[in-house]
Design goal:
- The chain is an alpha+beta fold.
- It folds into 2 domains: about 5-85 and about 145-155, Alpha-D-Glucose-1,6-Bisphosphate, Chain A, domain 4 (2-Layer Sandwich), CATH 3.30.530; about 85-130.
- It contains 4 helices and 7 strands; from the N terminus they run βαβββββαααβ.
- Strands 2-3-4-5-6-1-7 form a 7-stranded antiparallel sheet, with helices on one face.
- Helix 2 (about 85-110) runs antiparallel to helix 3 and helix 3 packs parallel to helix 4.
Length: about 160
């Protein structure tokens, strides 16, 4: 959905070797443990957040593998845990409503002070939210992807 990130890579490593290199590994990011599980034809990287006292927005990462001749196509998809998705989605909706209200007031001809205040509040709240998401959730996504790429020496589609 809104917070889902997908990356596609090529690998010269066979699918079976790929799975054996990753299965059971633990990734440590910001003192939080992520474990690699096998489920069906794909791998999942799931956070162990049982001992976490603070509120964190964490990703669940799916790694889909397909053999294409002598190469393996790897698709890494990270999406937010359903438990964590409510808060960020509410903030985005709230900022959207503030933005729409400011444009409606601008069109109707309301007081410019209120209109610009709503527009400024919307921009400020969304900017703070975006920076926090980049330092939190999207940082986890980047570091998990980099761990998988480093472990398996993957190449982007564009460079392969």
């Amino acid at each position: 959905m809104l917070f889902t990130r997908t990356q596609r890579y090529h690998s010269s490593i066979p699918k079976e070797v790929f799975i054996s290199r990753l299965i059971g590994n633990h990734v440590r990011i910001h003192n939080l443990d992520f474990e690699v599980f096998e489920k069906g034809n794909s791998l999942r990287i799931i956070p162990h957040a049982e001992q976490v006292d603070s509120i964190k927005t964490l990703p669940i990462t799916h790694i889909d593998l397909k053999n294409e001749g002598d190469k393996t196509d790897v698709v890494i998809t990270s999406n937010m845990r359903k438990l964590d998705s409510g808060g960020p989605l509410l903030i985005v909706i709230f900022c959207t409503f503030l933005l729409l209200a400011s444009f409606i007031l601008l069109y109707v001809g309301g007081q410019l002070q209120i209109t610009y205040s709503l527009l400024g509040m919307s921009a400020f709240i969304f900017t703070v939210f975006y920076v926090r998401m980049q330092m939190g959730y999207f940082d986890y996504v980047r570091k998990i992807r980099d761990h998988v790429k480093h472990k398996l020496e993957l190449k982007d589609y564009a460079t392969a």
